[in-house]
Specification:
CATH class of one domain: Alpha Beta
Structural class: alpha/beta
Helix content: 40-55%
Strand content: 15-25%
Number of strands: 13
Strand order of the largest sheet: 9-8-10-13
Largest sheet: 4 strands, parallel
Length: about 375
């Protein structure tokens, strides 16, 4: 009876459509087939017990877990739409909640592409998956914010300002920035050594990043503005820490120094840059002559923190003995150079050996960006 039921034209054509759609969703479904099945003998029992079953390489099996069942359901929707929808006269709205449920990352990304390209009509998705979020264009993303017991769409919904900022993000768009869409606050840092350090420092200070939905994101350089533009458009608070870089510049044949780190920060808050410092200017001299302190008082209230010099130098001010011991050097300057020469590798070595000493840094300047992140969390709960 089962064999004959499967050969009925309506059943055969319908399940063929479903199986065709399934094969678009995942390579692992190439040999997977769904079909109508029944174990009943009486006609009424046959009708009542008609159900969907599956086979893999010809062997009968259960349909699968919830993730597989969700894929089958979406394939059914698509097959049904292809048979019944007249796109010239009708519009179908599909509302899908958490399509990533029970699927591993590769299948989440593939499912997002499938929903984008195969479903005929308008699809509205709610998701907590960075894998799925990263697959959508910015003018299709709405960030829903919950504050003071109310919810609203950031920037009024799908906003042009989000799209413009996203275009500038370019190659940097990946799973990491996509995670930011689900954060209460984001700490932006330059590179992997900073991320390693602040992740360990947060744990040492009993700041549970996942509990508070705080993300630490690396910009892999100094292009903070593209990240800031995205986060501002999404109305997601951010805190930033960057190095106090100083670079050479030549104007009309004369050499000057450019306080690149300070100017990077000032430009983010719309303040006028500092130009043409003397050729003897260094990051350390800006810290020692009070310029760093003066600028920091302006930047810190805007959620921006400038290193005294860089992470390695600032760390040497807090844990000089430990840094000297790790490096085997006799001077702090040489120890700082040692740590900075292989930044992420040596930072990992330092943290593995001395992370217990981070517990005493809760009042340090290094800890202030993390504590500022917590202040954003507290503000959003008022």
């Amino acid at each position: 009876m089962n064999e004959r039921v499967r050969e009925l034209n309506y059943v055969k054509n319908s399940t063929a459509l479903v199986n065709k759609e399934l094969k678009k969703i995942a390579h692992t479904l190439i040999n997977y087939e769904v079909h109508l099945d029944t174990g009943a003998i009486q006609v009424q029992q046959f009708i009542d017990n008609l159900k969907l079953s599956a086979s893999n390489n010809g062997s009968k099996m259960l349909l699968g877990g919830d993730g597989r069942n969700n894929q089958i359901l979406l394939a059914l929707w698509t097959a049904k739409s292809q048979r019944e929808l007249n796109p010239e006269d009708e519009v179908v709205f599909y509302c899908i909640e958490e399509p990533e449920a029970h699927l591993h990352p590769h299948q989440q990304r593939k499912l997002a592409d499938y929903l984008n390209n195969e479903l005929i009509g308008q699809t509205i998705i709610t998701t907590h998956s960075p894998q799925i979020t990263a697959r959508y264009s910015p003018d299709s993303i709405i960030h829903i914010i919950n504050r003071n017991s109310d919810s609203y769409a950031a920037s009024g919904g799908c906003s042009d300002c989000i799209s413009n900022a996203w275009d500038n993000l370019g190659y940097r768009m990946s799973i990491l920035p996509a995670e930011a869409f689900f954060s209460r606050v984001v700490l932006l840092v330059e590179g992997p050594s900073e991320k390693l350090f602040y992740t360990e420092l947060a744990e040492a200070l009993n700041i549970d990043l996942d509990f508070y939905n705080i993300s630490i994101l690396t910009v892999d350089g100094i292009q903070f503005k593209v990240y800031v533009d995205i986060l501002d458009a999404m109305e997601i608070p951010w805190v930033l820490r960057t190095d106090n870089d100083v670079s050479k510049m030549k104007v009309s044949g004369r050499e000057w120094k450019n306080p690149a780190g300070i100017n990077r920060c000032l430009s983010l808050i719309g303040r006028e840059k500092i130009e043409y410092l003397g050729i003897d200017t260094t990051s350390k001299s800006l810290y020692e002559n009070g310029t760093w302190s003066e600028i920091s008082s302006i930047l810190n209230v805007n959620s921006i923190y400038l290193s005294k010099v860089d992470l390695e130098y600032d760390l040497s001010l807090e844990l000089p003995e430990q840094l000297l011991e790790l490096s085997g050097k006799e001077s702090i300057d040489d120890a700082v150079k040692f740590l900075a020469s292989k930044k992420a590798i040596r930072m990992r070595e330092f943290l593995a050996k001395y992370k217990c000493f981070l517990k005493g840094m809760n009042n340090s300047d290094l800890a202030r960006p993390l504590l500022h992140c917590l202040s954003h969390i507290n503000k959003s709960e008022v």
